[in-house]
Amino acid sequence: MAGFRRKKRFFRALLFVFLFLSGGVAVGLSPLFDITSVEVVGSLSLDEDMIISVSGLSVGENVFLEPLLERSRSRILEDRRIEDVSIHRRLPGGIRIIIEEKRPRYLLLSERLYGVTADGELLPLARNCTLPDVPLITGIEGIDRSWCYRKITSSPFRLACSIISELRRASLIKDVSEVNVSDTTRPFFFLISMRCPVYLDPADIEDGVERISAVMEEIRRETDIKCIDARFDNQLIVRYKDKPGKEGVL
């Protein structure tokens, strides 16, 4: 009797496996799950038809062919403008490709204008593109198109990023048109509201930016400031346009 029960359980399990595999084959071969549409979302500057073409996905293929989707994802990621991509089924026959493009965290002006990602990768910018509202870095030489999709690790670039980080933390970044590191011993940022440069000590950026932030309301009342020098301990030196010999100390 016990042997009969064991055989019965075995045949039930075998039947379940057979039905499961048969169902999988039926789904894989059923025209109900053939691809009928492919859509692309998240693309900002890349052509959607180009992405679909590169993916290799086409109407008539089965949406449950997992190797097909993985192969399509790998193909799309070969485009160096793309940070990440995910591909999802939308049953019964839809495919959605979600694109995440690499986005500039900074703009960099060298022999032309480039974008730079948060980790320093140089990005080309289309001539007619809408420029992102991100900080501009100037004063870094030797950057050209051969650097595209390579990472910038130079000390002037790292210095500029440190200054921008402190300006963001102090909520001053929206009032800054550029950060210049052509002379790394006296980098400066340009204040839009004051129309003047602010020089910093590269060894104490945080303190310099904090002191500027603390007196912004006071110095905004001035109309003829030529520059502000924050390289000195516990003080700001203000120089005036129409009074070359006059200096103010804050």
Describe the structure.
The protein has 250 residues and is an alpha/beta fold. The protein has 3 domains: 1-25; 34-101, membrane protein fhac (Ubiquitin-like (UB roll)), CATH 3.10.20.310; 106-249, Cell division protein FtsQ/DivIB (Rossmann fold, 3-Layer(aba) Sandwich). 31% of the residues lie in helices and 26% in strands. The protein has 6 helices and 13 strands. The chain has helices spanning 2-29, 48-55, 66-77, 155-169, 205-214, 216-219, and strands at 37-41, 82-90, 94-101, 106-109, 113-116, 122-123, 136-138, 176-180, 188-191, 196-200, 225-232, 235-240, 247-249. It has a 10-stranded mixed beta sheet with strand order 6-5-4-7-8-9-10-11-12-13, covered by helices on one side. It is elongated. The termini are far apart.
Task: Record the strand order, biggest sheet.
Answer: 6-5-4-7-8-9-10-11-12-13
In the CATH hierarchy, what is the architecture of the largest domain at level 2? 3-Layer(aba) Sandwich
CATH structural fold name of the largest domain: Rossmann fold
Order of helices and strands: HEHHEEEEEEHEEEHHEEE
